[in-house]
Amino acid sequence: MAWMKRSLGKDGAKAGRLRRNLFLAGLGLTAAACATIDSTPDAPSVTASDRGVAAKQHPQILQEFGGAVQGPAATYVNTIGQKVATAAGLPGQCTFTVVNSDVVNAFAVPGCYIYITRGLLAIMNTEDELASVLGHEVGHVTADHSARRQNTAMASQLGALLVGVLSGSGQIAQAAGQLGQMYSLNYSRDQEFQADDLGVRYISKVGYNPYAAADMLNALGTNDALTTKISGRGTADPTPAWARTHPLSADRVVRAKTKAQAAGAVPGQPPEIGKPYLDAIRGLMFGDDPEQGFIMGHTFAHPKLKIAFDAPEGYVMQNSPSAIIVAGAGGKAQFQGGKMPAEGLDAYTAAALKQIIGEAPAQIGQRQSTTTNGLETVIAPSLVQNSSGQLLNVVVYAYKVKESVYSFVTLSAASAAQPFTAMTRSFRALSDAEAAKLKARQIELVTVGPKDTAETISRRMAFDDFKLDRFLAINGRAADTPLKAGEVVKIVSYAK
Asked: What is residue 356's predicted lDDT score, i.e. its pLDDT?
């Protein structure tokens, strides 16, 4: 979460709507799940109007996703992207940008502005894999998917909370995300497969190994499994592959291999281009940006703002430049901050709660003034009835830290126990010494020595847990595949 200067007035509501729309798109998109532009495979083109609109949106998107990454990695991505776009019949018509987010994702917006996160770059290992992802994105462009997707709601249950919290519309829409997902199932699966196929076609045309698409999809699956393991969410997901908005990576891996084989490709021929890619991402920031704070297990800590809090066990945190989202089975919460208004903490809390609730039937409780770990605090509780008739506890917790205000908005069923009590009581200021311990991480390259193993090299990973798992995941390696002396691998180290 970066420093925010959001108001609760008209401008704040407008910024909130933009923030909501962009962030919901990001939450609804796993890697290679994209919004796209109007075009066709036979006569691909991007109009001047498309490009003009995209150019105006570009700065806002960069702000939402932490800005653009500069340097060798960004230059490399643009070079490969232009090569793939040319193969698809779109020479000079696409813009490729690396955005400063550790979320594993890639997406495109109308006008053929294609974005890829540094988080996705970190789990790739070859230029061919990069080309396969960019080819997939360009495939969405040439297949004209946006015309069929532009009105489709892709919000999740988590996003449904943001609709009410960020837009100022007053809608506490519990089921909005589920309905949107069901609406999109009719075509999203086929669109993803079609984009996969087109991507394979494009990268084959410019000499990349088509099997790289399967390698990339397999890496996505491995990363997802690791994320699940680290977060403690459990490994079983009862949702079958055919009923997902975006197909399971395992299914797509098999399918990608079949398509590559049908195209006459041979595994390893031509060899995938590894070293130039690794050189390009050397020094790339890994994980959280200090400007947005760190998520460490169930703790969020910001070294520059010098604040921290602990999320409930079993809940997942999502960091963005504008807010922290905390979600779990018992409810959802949003954390954000900004400059303390002249009216003071009590007035801020009352105005925030009023904007969140809007015109929904609600019972407003008495605001409570207290302290939390030595910080002035105001709590504004309410009982809100959503459109389905369900009663929800909607509570605003606001804290004063010097000249700043930080707040939680929590939402949970009124009939259940409040899941966020411990979290809201854990909000605290960090000492200078505590903040100094929070350091950025980066990708480092290591040449394997004759006695090195995955186990020994993984000990150098800048993490306290899952060192070997993380090492294997970012290098796309199986645990039973030995390292070879002289090969170059990635580790994560603290930035100097």
From this structure: 85
